[in-house]
């Protein structure tokens, strides 16, 4: 079931649950109040009527004297009651008088009364009343004992209260009609209102469908001044994150594919050369110089493949392993770097100048050693014989900084941002001459990421390069 239908049905149920019972309660309360007032008024009239009859009897007795016996006969009583009723001027009031034997003396009610009359079973001066249906009308019967001279009568005051019940029935009819009108109006209003309320949700549903189809740039535009607007804002935020993640995955997939393509190319080139020279030495005639030259090329290409496999192994390990940081001495780190780079520096006649703060810092010593030796190795490759390379290690604002500076060939401006991509080489001929694989800076970047640090390269062509690492 759709949301707008649920809202409509729930609203309709709530309305019916509260409106109908409350309306019925008000109508019944009004009915009971009117009936109670009518009963009170009728009791007062009944008492006044009986009091008037008794007072007239006293008047007759005084008129004729105490020694004169006045006998009230049935005809006189009927005449007296008719006179009173004619002065009362109320068509809805009737009177019934019966004697001690239950015989009717006076009754101006044309309706036939039931045989059972519980209201006439009176005890002494007790007054009783009852409401009953007589044919198509409803009457209030109020009965009491009436003593005239030496005779006892039962005086019943009867009043037509059909209008009160009719009014209640009329109000119930109005309630039914009003309820139908309100329900119909409510149906129209709630359908329009519910659809208006769920319109932003429908918009979000369409957006989710588009996103599911691959359109990650889809957004929902809803006013932010109520809850659905906030929901739409959070949805857009979530969609933005998903779009960024998808783009990141796409870039990662592209990087991996480029990595595989470059790796294939890097492996194929030396292998082709090795196979070609090996086949030449296997089948052709050659002198010692050609033999030495071919073997040297095979050796260099083999060394390059060995170095490539070593770097790839390091990258693979960095991707999988979890490393723990420990407090390490910077002085010990410098000694390890010097020891590792000694032969390469001497081989190319490069002087390494080092300045460092004698401190300890939390790091993974082996990884930081690989990081610095790779940076120095790149600086050596970029420098010429007799140049100097600077290594600076110091603490600044609570962070550890490494700087490797050379005055070598430098990096073109357009290549600075690309040099940390795997297999990217600014000068492929120079890299191959140095058995380079174009993967050293990618390795450095991964080590920096593991240490939650940053790496910056500042370089000018033919002026040198400064690589700064902050961890």
TrEMBL record:
It catalyses: ATP + protein L-histidine = ADP + protein N-phospho-L-histidine. The keyword Aminoacyl-tRNA synthetase does not apply. Keywords: ATP-binding, Cell membrane, Kinase, Membrane, Nucleotide-binding, Phosphoprotein, Transferase, Transmembrane, Transmembrane helix, Two-component regulatory system. The keyword Cell membrane applies. Gene3D superfamilies: 1.10.287.130, 6.10.340.10, Histidine kinase-like ATPase, C-terminal domain (3.30.565.10). Its EC number is 2.7.13.3. It is a multi-pass membrane protein. CDD domains: HAMP, HATPase, HisKA. GO terms for molecular function: ATP binding; phosphorelay sensor kinase activity. It is found in: Cell membrane. GO terms for cellular component: plasma membrane. InterPro entries: HAMP_dom (IPR003660), HATPase_C_sf (IPR036890), HATPase_dom (IPR003594), His_kinase_dom (IPR005467), HisK_dim/P_dom (IPR003661), HisK_dim/P_sf (IPR036097), HssS/ArlS-like (IPR050398), Sig_transdc_His_kin-like_C (IPR004358). SUPFAM superfamilies: ATPase domain of HSP90 chaperone/DNA topoisomerase II/histidine kinase, HAMP domain-like, Homodimeric domain of signal transducing histidine kinase. This is histidine kinase. It comes from Clostridium felsineum. The lineage of its organism: Bacteria, Bacillati, Bacillota, Clostridia, Eubacteriales. The gene is sasA_14.
